[in-house]
Design brief:
The complex is a heterodimer of chains A (about 55) and B (about 260).
Chain A (H helix, E strand, L loop, with lengths): L3 H6 L4 H43 L1
Chain B lengths: L1 H4 L2 H33 L13 H28 L2 H33 L7 H20 L5 H15 L2 H11 L19 H42 L9 H10 L2
Helix pairs in contact in B: 2-8, 3-4, 3-6, 3-8, 4-5, 4-6, 4-8, 5-6, 5-7, 8-9
Classes of the chains: A mainly alpha (about 55), B mainly alpha (about 260).
Amino acid sequence: MVDIGAFLAMGGYAGFVWPAYGVAFTVLGGLALFSWRRYRQSTVALERLQQDLRNRR
Amino acid sequence: MINWLANPARFMRLSAKAVPWCGWVAVLALAVGLFWSLVVAPPDYQQGDTVRIMYVHVPAAWMALSVYLFVAVASAVALVWRHPLAEVAARSAAPIGAAFTFVCLATGSLWGRPMWGAWWVWDARLTSVLILFFLYLGYIALANAFDDPSRGGRAGAVLALVGVVNLPIIKFSVDWWNTLHQPASVMRAGGPRIDISMLAPLLIMALGFTLLFAVLLMVRMRTALNERKAMALRLNAGSAPVARLDRERVVSARTAMP
């Protein structure tokens, strides 16, 4: 059986190993989320603009 | 090949297909890599479980360097051939590189505290990577400091090219100076000096980070092209205050339109 407690303790280095993975996950995940949101916004904005221009003609 | 790809319309078509594929493979590689690094890989006989920090620290460091090289090459192409896609590529890649550099510095600090007894030392390797981080920030600030994106891109490109001198300094800092940081153990003459049980998860994490970079780069480039196309449409439609803009900006917006 896998000992969850021992796994989380990381041989006594839990206070260093987990924050390291946490920082990587937060920074890279945050950048991915931010980039994806801004991409969706730019796509919607461009489509709306093209629609407006078509209607104006 | 590069020339054929360097067409904004073609880039939009190809990247629309490549983003989901690359994205899911990146997620898969990172999931396998994380499980392998945290569960399967053995603790080090000297460093214990802190060695697991290596599986994010080292790939992040590799990405920090290679993304900077990418920004520099794209900047050179943008300066020499004035290709709008190259400028967009450099501009889109820089924040990703800065994020990888930050991860490298933060995880290194968390590894240094238990192993060296210090969060930070002013040693050649650490200091040169910190300078790399500032180069990224400088590039981002400079590229966005002008109303006209093409002028900002050119100023940033010069900075990116000057900063390339830092890359060999980082790579060889551990050989040239007496540093606390250990010398290269994977990318060295004579092959990697690290056991396969640790090398395998390291390489899978590196693959995951590389794919993540590719996806983020494509998504951010698509965003920039969308925004430039919207700006060009607004200018052509006359709904923007065109009179206030100089001619160069109108021209650059038009050439950027896919």
